[in-house]
């Protein structure tokens, strides 16, 4: 038979030139439909392969449905498989066409070949068309009684599919009872496993509405069934064994002897090569002995060797999964694993995620006996060329220092890190030194001597700069240059894009003022003026709070901001004991790897209000940025949400009057509140030219005239729901595509992407979603014209590795795209991004 004619534009069978290709296929399939000539099956195979190929790349070949069904009248299993694949793909989309397949599928369900019977039954149950369930009950009933185990296995899963299509039809046909009988009496273990899985799912779903279903679900945990399955467990596949062990983990034995019988029966499962099976067995052991303290400790000792063997043998993914479970066990009983610390040393060829988890393990098991060896190993990693691992190792050393009593050697190691002259090492070390000083203030003299030699200009990361500023304020009496360093930072307020740094700078200057008033007077005035004019609500509120506190009573202000402090004994655990217990109960599941209970990543209220389509990528919803809270030192004071409401200053759209100062007047800590008039007279700040400030403090200050409005005016209170954004993004064409160069300062600022989001909202450009992670960040922004309901949509992808920003702009009003692009670029430039 001659091949179909091809268009000159397409030379590949997977790239048809148009409807002509599909029409040619249709005519050729029709010619072969009733043919019984020799070799006709081979010709059908070639045509079927083309149809499947077109279908796979997204070409609509549903018009061939009738011809494909007619050509399926053959005993060739390969042709049957391809036809079933085609039918299953188009049946749900075209229910009317699916009706054409019922006759030949029901006929194939009675074929002499058990393979064809099983394939036909699987395809029939996979149609998932509610109107066709009546045609499914009969073949399923026959399949469950079939003499061939493959057909019975397919029929059991078909019952579950039927239940999800029409639960009432499934229950009326009494399929659960048939499955229960089949589970107990069938000789084939895979059929038994499928019955168990199907019944568990059906009774769990029905249990919330029916007491009888709840009793049936509990009946799966009866002693005869558990023992029946355990005695046959070696006959089952590995997947089926895991299913049985998951059921056994929920079983409550009647006494200790029964517990030991089950554990002895499953002892050899701990030596299995399959990691999932070993973890499932461990879960059974842990759950059975949970109330037997001594035996439970012995179980930990028993399971160490199998787990450590799995970590060292197998793929990186398996090692990570097993390490995640080991980490959970270590957190519950660190002393039992402390002598095995060398198993958690990092190998040079291991994946990053495995190394990171091993570092967490070393941190958890570090005891007084092995602290020196572990810290020595971690210090070697700090000089690693792999920067993320070097950062994690430094953090691990700091965590060990915070949980040990004798920290002399560890502090010396940390201070040596500051002399390595590597930016990322210095940044991580500064954060840790801050925490160390909060717990061990007696080390302040040694630490400050080293920290005082570090220039704030060389620190770019917000957390590290915030830590340095905290130390400058907290120990300003011991650091000769502290007031002048802080003054330099205050004078360059606009160059600092991190709200966290600005918050710490305000507090540090307040502390420095109470300790060295003459030298800090000017810097404090600058900072308070800039803080009150700041676009970030938390920074604005804190500056206003400090200013009002100083005006009220300077001695009270000192007691509030710089009170006598006690050393921090224990830092807060990010996870409560309840959460950890929930994770332990869900041992051998994703909860252990995610380190959170399953409800936190399965329930909709914890996942977010909506999910973007694949077009927009896997993004997270950006909450209202005005409500964002910047993580700050627990010694700092922030206004609460209710107090912010009392202040009544909106984030955008209004302008405020900053307190000012007169540097000619002296200012000391003994001054009364009336002496604080220095803060009310004449300060010039870099932001005052762009932020006009109303007299909201009742000080009778004059205001700077507002600048002329831009050519394109945006609505600062624009609202666009995610669904509308997604719909518009699909419908609107791209108005402009830009590629911009990102400055080094912009790259550094993206260590805290929230700062960029806050800044853009200050320019009436709102972020609706963010995604990605370093080095590639993705933002979706929107803006609206103030005079009409016209939207601008922006996709902004920033790569910190290539220092490039790619933007796509879509607009309801295409003519305004260029003006909006100019506003968007100006906003990025003001942030320091370009």
UniProtKB/TrEMBL annotation:
<dbReference type="InterPro" id="IPR011989">
    <property type="entry name" value="ARM-like"/>
</dbReference>
<dbReference type="InterPro" id="IPR026739">
    <property type="entry name" value="AP_beta"/>
</dbReference>
<keyword id="KW-0813">Transport</keyword>
<dbReference type="Pfam" id="PF09066">
    <property type="entry name" value="B2-adapt-app_C"/>
</dbReference>
<dbReference type="InterPro" id="IPR016024">
    <property type="entry name" value="ARM-type_fold"/>
</dbReference>
<dbReference type="GO" id="GO:0030276">
    <property type="term" value="F:clathrin binding"/>
</dbReference>
<dbReference type="InterPro" id="IPR015151">
    <property type="entry name" value="B-adaptin_app_sub_C"/>
</dbReference>
<comment type="function">
    <text>Subunit of clathrin-associated adaptor protein complex that plays a role in protein sorting in the late-Golgi/trans-Golgi network (TGN) and/or endosomes. The AP complexes mediate both the recruitment of clathrin to membranes and the recognition of sorting signals within the cytosolic tails of transmembrane cargo molecules.</text>
</comment>
<dbReference type="GO" id="GO:0030131">
    <property type="term" value="C:clathrin adaptor complex"/>
</dbReference>
<feature type="compositionally biased region" description="Low complexity">
    <location>
        <begin position="7"/>
        <end position="17"/>
    </location>
</feature>
<comment type="similarity">
    <text>Belongs to the adaptor complexes large subunit family.</text>
</comment>
<dbReference type="InterPro" id="IPR012295">
    <property type="entry name" value="TBP_dom_sf"/>
</dbReference>
<feature type="region of interest" description="Disordered">
    <location>
        <begin position="1"/>
        <end position="41"/>
    </location>
</feature>
<dbReference type="Pfam" id="PF01602">
    <property type="entry name" value="Adaptin_N"/>
</dbReference>
<dbReference type="GO" id="GO:0006886">
    <property type="term" value="P:intracellular protein transport"/>
</dbReference>
<feature type="domain" description="Beta-adaptin appendage C-terminal subdomain">
    <location>
        <begin position="712"/>
        <end position="829"/>
    </location>
</feature>
<comment type="subunit">
    <text>Adaptor protein complexes are heterotetramers composed of two large adaptins (beta-type subunit and alpha-type or delta-type or epsilon-type or gamma-type subunit), a medium adaptin (mu-type subunit) and a small adaptin (sigma-type subunit).</text>
</comment>
<keyword id="KW-0472">Membrane</keyword>
<dbReference type="GO" id="GO:0012505">
    <property type="term" value="C:endomembrane system"/>
</dbReference>
<dbReference type="GO" id="GO:0016192">
    <property type="term" value="P:vesicle-mediated transport"/>
</dbReference>
<protein>
    <recommendedName>
        <fullName>Beta-adaptin-like protein</fullName>
    </recommendedName>
</protein>
<keyword id="KW-0653">Protein transport</keyword>
<dbReference type="InterPro" id="IPR016342">
    <property type="entry name" value="AP_complex_bsu_1_2_4"/>
</dbReference>
<dbReference type="InterPro" id="IPR002553">
    <property type="entry name" value="Clathrin/coatomer_adapt-like_N"/>
</dbReference>
């Amino acid at each position: 038979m001659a091949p179909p004619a091809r268009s000159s534009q397409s030379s590949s069978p997977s790239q048809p030139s148009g409807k002509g290709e599909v029409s040619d296929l249709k005519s050729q399939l029709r010619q072969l439909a009733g043919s019984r000539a020799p070799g006709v099956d081979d010709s059908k195979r070639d045509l079927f392969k083309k149809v499947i190929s077109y279908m796979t790349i997204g070409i609509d070949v549903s018009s061939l449905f009738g011809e494909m069904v007619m050509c399926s009248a053959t005993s060739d299993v390969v042709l049957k498989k391809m036809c079933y694949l085609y039918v299953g793909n188009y049946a749900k989309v075209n229910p009317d066409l699916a009706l054409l397949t019922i006759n030949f599928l029901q006929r194939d369900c009675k074929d002499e070949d058990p393979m064809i019977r099983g394939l036909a039954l699987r395809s029939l149950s996979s149609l998932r068309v509610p109107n066709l369930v009546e045609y499914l009950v009969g073949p399923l009933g026959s399949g469950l009684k079939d003499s061939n185990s493959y057909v019975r296995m397919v029929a059991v899963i078909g019952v579950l599919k039927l239940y999800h299509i029409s639960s009432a039809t499934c229950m009326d046909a009494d399929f659960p009872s048939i499955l229960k009988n089949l589970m107990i009496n069938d000789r084939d273990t895979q059929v038994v496993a499928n019955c168990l899985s199907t019944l568990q799912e059906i009774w769990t779903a029905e249990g919330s509405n029916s007491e009888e279903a709840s009793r049936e679900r509990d009946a799966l945990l009866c002693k005869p069934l558990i023992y029946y399955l355990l005695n046959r467990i070696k006959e089952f596949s590995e997947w089926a064994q895991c299913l049985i062990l998951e059921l056994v983990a929920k079983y409550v034995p009647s006494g200790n002897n029964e517990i030991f019988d089950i554990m002895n029966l499953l002892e050899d499962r701990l030596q299995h090569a399959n990691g999932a099976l070993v973890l499932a067995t461990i879960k059974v052991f842990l759950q059975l002995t949970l109330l037997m303290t001594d035996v439970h400790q012995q179980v930990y000792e028993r399971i160490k060797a199998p787990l450590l063997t799995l970590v060292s043998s197998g793929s990186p993914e398996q090692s990570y999964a097993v390490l995640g479970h080991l980490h959970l066990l270590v957190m519950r009983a660190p002393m039992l694993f402390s002598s095995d610390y060398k198993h958690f040393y990092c190998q040079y060829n291991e994946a990053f995620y495995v190394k990171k988890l091993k570092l967490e393990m070393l941190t958890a098991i570090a005891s007084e006996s092995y602290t020196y060896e572990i810290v020595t190993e971690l210090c070697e990693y700090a000089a690693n060329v792999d920067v993320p691992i070097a950062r994690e190792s430094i953090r691990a050393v700091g965590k060990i220092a915070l949980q040990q009593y004798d920290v002399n050697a560890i502090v010396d190691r940390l201070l040596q890190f500051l002399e390595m002259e590597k930016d990322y090492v210095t940044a991580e070390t500064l954060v840790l030194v801050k925490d160390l000083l909060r717990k061990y203030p007696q080390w302040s003299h040694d630490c400050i001597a080293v920290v005082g030699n570090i220039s704030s200009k060389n620190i770019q990361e917000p957390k590290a700069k915030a830590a340095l500023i905290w130390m400058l304020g907290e120990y300003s009496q011991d650091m000769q240059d502290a007031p002048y360093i802080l003054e330099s930072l205050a004078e360059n307020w606009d160059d600092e894009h991190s709200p966290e740094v600005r918050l710490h700078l305000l507090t540090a200057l307040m502390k420095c003022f109470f300790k060295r008033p003459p030298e800090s007077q000017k810097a404090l005035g600058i900072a308070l003026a800039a803080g009150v004019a700041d676009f970030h609500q938390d920074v604005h509120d804190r500056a206003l709070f400090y200013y009002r506190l100083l005006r009220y009573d300077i001695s009270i202000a000192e007691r509030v901001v710089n009170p006598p402090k006690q050393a921090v004994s224990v830092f807060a655990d990010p996870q409560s004991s309840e959460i950890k217990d929930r994770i332990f109960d869900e041992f051998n599941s994703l909860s252990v790897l995610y380190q959170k209970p399953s409800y936190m990543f399965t329930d909709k209220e914890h996942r977010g209000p909506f999910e973007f389509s694949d077009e927009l990528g896997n993004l997270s919803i950006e909450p209202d940025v005005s409500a964002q809270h910047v993580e700050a030192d627990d010694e700092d004071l922030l206004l609460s949400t209710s107090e912010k409401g009392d202040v009544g200053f909106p984030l955008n759209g209004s302008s405020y009057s900053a307190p000012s100062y007169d540097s000619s007047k002296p200012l000391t800590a003994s001054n009364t509140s009336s002496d604080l008039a220095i803060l009310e007279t004449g300060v010039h700040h870099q932001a005052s030219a762009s932020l006009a400030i109303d007299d909201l403090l009742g000080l009778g200050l004059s205001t700077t005239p507002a600048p002329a409005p831009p050519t394109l005016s945006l609505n600062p209170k624009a609202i666009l729901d995610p669904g509308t954004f997604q719909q518009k993004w699909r419908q609107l064409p791209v108005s402009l595509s830009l590629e911009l160069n990102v400055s080094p300062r912009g790259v550094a600022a993206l260590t805290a992407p929230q700062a960029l989001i806050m800044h853009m909202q200050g320019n009436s450009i709102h972020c609706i979603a963010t995604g990605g992670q370093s080095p590639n960040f993705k933002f979706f922004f929107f803006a609206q014209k103030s005079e009409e309901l016209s939207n601008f949509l922006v996709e902004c992808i920033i790569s910190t590795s290539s220092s490039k920003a790619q933007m796509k702009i879509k607009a309801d009003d295409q003519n305004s795209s260029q003006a909006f692009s100019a506003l968007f670029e100006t906003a990025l430039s003001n942030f320091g991004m370009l």
